[in-house]
């Protein structure tokens, strides 16, 4: 990654007044991409968030097509040129207001969709504190398996059930083996959980049979979203061996509507280093650039709003605070390099989840499985309620922001969804 440039200057102001508000997550230094429409069932348009507005890039003449995949697949140099053009046109004192104002729409007046069509979805397991805490529940003496420090662990998820923030979903059903039972039962999950993650959106892909090197990996990453990898822990406990998650994960994944680009993230990169005594990665997972700036400093929060809170006008409370850079054992570039080392083709719009990003400190466990010790000790909420796992009509909201002295902070928007009552079990013919 090259050094920050003038689009990150903290004194940049926009003629979109809300973008200059110190509390706004979408200042001119951010310019995240997403998709929106002004009428139900209309085609999606490519938009960029600025202040409390969305800029229609096609209407503004900044892109030729409304196809987000085509934009994602552009070389990194063209993405940077587009960012610079948008920045210049939106700056205070320039001549962009007359041209762009007709293509600006209030965010409250539009529907936000998935930021891109998700072609494929792979979920990793790079949060070492989560891996240790979760492993300790089943393997107290050896919570991390021997391969964890050598290979980025991941599995292929279900792209068809990735939804944008705001889409609620019914509690999933599946097989559960109860304690001391001799056979499983089909039932709604009783141990619904959230997982605080980040999603990596692939930009330019690679041809099947080729691989992406560590030196090139950053050029193939378009940006980051927030991601909630909802998990039915009781289904997962029964079905996951030996091939990993299936119904426990495939029912729903929620992402935020905005992609914060790698260009916008440049001021918030950090060095990455292995803990003392850990093995260094194999050469295909190592580079000087990755060691110097492979991590991304993103402060993360999880908010929980129960039905009782909602009824009383309470917006919920923060139950988790963590950080992407501190929680992640592997970097974005390492995930890209490993995913393709066998010749796997990544496509523009593919989604890579990081895995649960728990920190090492108090209040940093990023899922209820960890917070409650596997459902043994409830989390106590400020209104007197308790939770072992999520109940019907609980809403989970993920938030993220990047901050650094000398730069304007930028945000990701919300990643929100509510667990609803399970659908009725299907009828079965008992005689069949």
Walkthrough of the structure:
The protein is of the alpha+beta class. It has two domains: 6-112, Roll (SH3 type barrels); 121-420, Fumarylacetoacetate hydrolase, domain 2. 18% of the residues lie in helices and 24% in strands. The chain contains twelve helices and 27 strands. The strands form seven sheets. Strands 6, 7, 8, 13, 14, 16, 17 and 22 form an eight-stranded mixed sheet that branches. Strands 9, 20, 21, 25, 26 and 27 form a six-stranded mixed sheet that branches. The chain has a five-stranded antiparallel sheet with strand order 4-3-2-1-5, with no helix packed on it. The longest helix is centred in the first third of the chain and has 15 residues, at 76-90. It is globular, with a radius of gyration of 22 Å. The N and C termini lie far apart (62 Å).
CATH architecture of the largest domain: Alpha-Beta Complex
Strand percentage:
15-25%
Overall mean confidence score, pLDDT: 95
Number of helices: 12
Report the biggest beta sheet as strand number plus sense, adding barrel if it closes. 8 strands, mixed
**N-C termini distance:** 62 Å
Query: Count of DSSP E strands?
Result: 27
Which blocks of ≥5 consecutive residues have pLDDT under 50? none
Cα-based radius of gyration, to the nearest Å: 22 Å
> Helix- and strand-based class?
alpha+beta
**Which CATH first-tier class of the largest domain would you pick?**
Alpha Beta
The H-level CATH homologous superfamily of the largest domain, spelled out, is: Fumarylacetoacetase-like, C-terminal domain
Number of domains: 2
Shape: globular
CATH topology (fold) name of the largest domain: Fumarylacetoacetate hydrolase, domain 2
């Amino acid at each position: 990654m090259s050094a920050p440039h003038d689009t990150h200057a903290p004194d940049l102001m926009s003629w979109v007044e809300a973008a200059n508000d110190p509390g706004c997550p979408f200042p001119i230094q951010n310019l995240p991409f997403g998709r929106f429409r002004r009428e139900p069932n209309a085609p999606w348009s490519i938009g960029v968030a600025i202040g409390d507005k969305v800029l229609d890039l096609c209407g503004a003449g900044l892109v030729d097509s409304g196809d987000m995949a085509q934009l994602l697949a552009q070389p990194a140099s063209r993405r940077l040129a587009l960012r610079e053009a948008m920045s210049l046109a939106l700056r205070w004192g320039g001549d962009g207001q007359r041209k762009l104002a007709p293509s600006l729409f209030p965010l409250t007046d539009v529907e936000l969709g998935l930021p891109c069509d998700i072609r494929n979805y792979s979920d990793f397991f790079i949060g070492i504190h989560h891996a240790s805490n979760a492993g300790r529940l089943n393997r107290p003496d050896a919570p991390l398996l021997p391969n964890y420090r050598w290979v980025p662990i991941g599995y292929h998820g279900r792209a068809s059930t990735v939804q944008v923030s705001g889409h609620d979903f019914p509690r999933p059903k599946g097989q559960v083996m109860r304690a001391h039972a001799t056979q499983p039962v089909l039932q709604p999950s009783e141990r619904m959980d959230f997982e605080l993650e980040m999603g990596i959106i692939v930009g330019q892909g690679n041809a099947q049979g080729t691989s992406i090197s560590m030196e090139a990996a950053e050029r193939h990453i378009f940006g980051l979203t927030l991601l909630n990898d909802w998990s039915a822990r009781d289904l997962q406990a029964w079905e996951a061996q030996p091939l990993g998650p299936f119904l426990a994960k495939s029912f729903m994944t929620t992402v935020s509507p905005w992609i914060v680009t790698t260009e916008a993230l440049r001021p918030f990169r950090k060095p990455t280093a292995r803990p003392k005594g850990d093995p260094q990665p194999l050469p295909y997972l190592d580079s000087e650039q990755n060691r110097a700036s492979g991590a991304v400093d993103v402060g993360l929060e999880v908010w929980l709003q129960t039905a009782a809170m909602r009824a009383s006008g309470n917006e919920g409370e923060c139950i988790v605070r963590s950080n992407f850079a501190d929680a992640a054992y592997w970097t974005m570039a390492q995930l890209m390099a490993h995913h393709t080392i066998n010749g796997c083709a990544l496509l523009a719009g593919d989604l890579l989840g990081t895995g649960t990003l728990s920190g090492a400190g108090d209040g940093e466990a990023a899922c209820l499985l960890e917070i409650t010790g596997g459902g043994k000790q409830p989390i106590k909420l400020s209104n007197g309620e308790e939770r072992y796992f999520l109940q019907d009509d609980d809403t989970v909201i993920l938030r993220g922001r990047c901050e650094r002295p000398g730069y304007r902070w930028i945000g990701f928007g919300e990643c929100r969804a509510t667990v609803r009552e399970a659908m009725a079990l299907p009828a079965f013919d008992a005689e069949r």
